[in-house]
Amino acid sequence: MTLDEVRKDIDSIDNQLLILLNQRMKLVHKVGEIKRSTKAIIYRPEREKQILDRMNAQNEGPLNKEAIEAIYLEIFAAARNIELPERVAFLGPEGSFTHQAAESRFGAMSEYMTLPTIKSVFEAVDTGRAKFGVIPIENNQEGIVYETVDLLNEMNVNVAAELKIPVHFALATEAENPSKIKRIYSKDIAFRQCRGFLNKYFEQTHPEEIQVESTSKAAKLAAEDPESAAICSEIAAKLFSIPVLFNNIEDNSQNRTRFYILAKNFVNAKSENDKTTIIARLPDTDKPGILANFLQDFKKAGINLTKIESRPYKGDEDFNFWFFIELEGFFQDENVEKVFKKYKNSIKWLGSYVRNA
Description:
Blueprint: H1 3-38, H2 45-58, H3 65-83, E1 87-91, H4 97-106, E2 111-115, H5 118-127, E3 132-139, E4 143-144, H6 146-154, E5 158-166, E6 170-173, E7 183-186, H7 188-193, H8 195-201, E8 208-211, H9 215-224, E9 228-232, H10 234-239, E10 244-246, E11 256-263, E12 274-280, H11 290-300, E13 305-312, E14 321-328, H12 334-342, E15 347-354
Parallel strand pairs: 1-2, 1-3, 7-8, 7-9
Antiparallel strand pairs: 3-4, 3-11, 5-11, 6-9, 6-10, 12-14, 12-15, 13-14
Helix pairs in contact: 1-3, 2-3
């Protein structure tokens, strides 16, 4: 086949895809009408997971799992905006990894609120100014985000979903090569996570390292300073139209950040692979055996606890603690429900949602 013939076949397939996508969106519109009439929730992570699992099971290539997920997540986002456009708050600034996480689930078409603090995202969801909020919960290199954990204890919002994204840093600069760079802007954590790259590529020149409050701010400053560079996300470099000289400069390629999607009065349907997040406020935690007995009940019920973090009661002069806990299973599973019922006065249920492995 000639190049023109191949392109004609591609054009023909694109035409068919457009027709099919529009047919899908018409059905989505009907779903939206049904949901609005019954006041049902538009965002259904477990339903999206079912579709992705089915598509991956049917897939014969050459698209891989990641490509299928990327394509369908954008379709889902477009569909949600047809069903009911909803405002999404996220921890800013624009171009941050939280921004990237938000767009990966809600697409480029959604209405976004960029907020300066994790607490302001919680407040936006709690007051109804935003339908959903996206905030970080932990990084697999740096650990848990305690501000998020504390606010989950203090405020009345739910965890609707979790998502994990790889953290890749880029070196963005107007300079043509590293030797021209005299200053590098970035956040302290980014400098730490890219130390090996910096030591190797700037061993001779030793440019000044300037810490700023965010990698997005770093990209903005580098765009205004031709003798500088920024360690930032690709989305930040794109936002400020600054060329990327090197991609994936982080020392650890396994760097991942996990995010929660927050909502108010949100309850998922059960899926085949769920997690549950709770707060446990056990009485008399300064006495021997209180926590051990609590954990033993989960073990007896065959429930796997995947995370437990202790946090102090603020303003308490004694050394008493409450606990942030994640476990495998759905809150209405018989074994989970049994333990929850035993400790109904001590457990705050935050959400059961599809596990993002």
